[in-house]
Amino acid sequence: MRYPEGGGLTAERRAFREKIRLQAGDRFAAGEKTAVIAKDLRVSVRSVERWRRAWREGGLEGLQSAGPANEPTVTDAQFAVLEEELGKGPAGHGFEDQRWTLVRVRTVIRRRFGLSLSVATGGGC
Question: By the 8 A CB rule, do 35 and 29 touch?
């Protein structure tokens, strides 16, 4: 599944998950058992155990979202430039044919912006 931020969860989904974790935190404080919380919140027991550890160490603050897992490497302005560059086609960047691959896109990004991206290189785009 692809996400609009280039990886990880959308802001809405992060907020939803945080709400579930905070509900679990309230129930930890009330002394409820892990299995009951997991069943009621429809999550795994393992997740509730992990949340309980975080709650013990940091209270409800320990259950709050830390934000996106990673920030986009390319800024909005750079992305607009990248769209223009990709519009020139692979041959416009010295590749032998008109097929975009992840490796080729990464190469264009590196050449144009000096950025190094880790991209899975499993085939064409």
Answer: no
- Per residue in 55-70, pLDDT (tens digit) is 999 999 889 887 766 6
Alpha carbons 106 and 57: distance in angstroms, whole number = 41
How far is residue 49 CA from its own chain's centroid? Answer: 23
Q: Read out DSSP for 86-118?
A: HHTTTGGGT-SSS--BHHHHHHHHHHHH-----
The owner of tokens 């679990």 is 24
For residue 5, name the pLDDT band (cuts at 50, 70, 90). Answer: very low
Q: What spatial distance separates the first Cα and last Cα of the chain, rounded to whole Å?
A: 15
Q: State the Cα–Cα distance between residues 79 and 1, nearest whole angstrom.
A: 21
Beta-bridge mates of residue 101: 124
Q: What is the pTM of this model?
A: 0.52
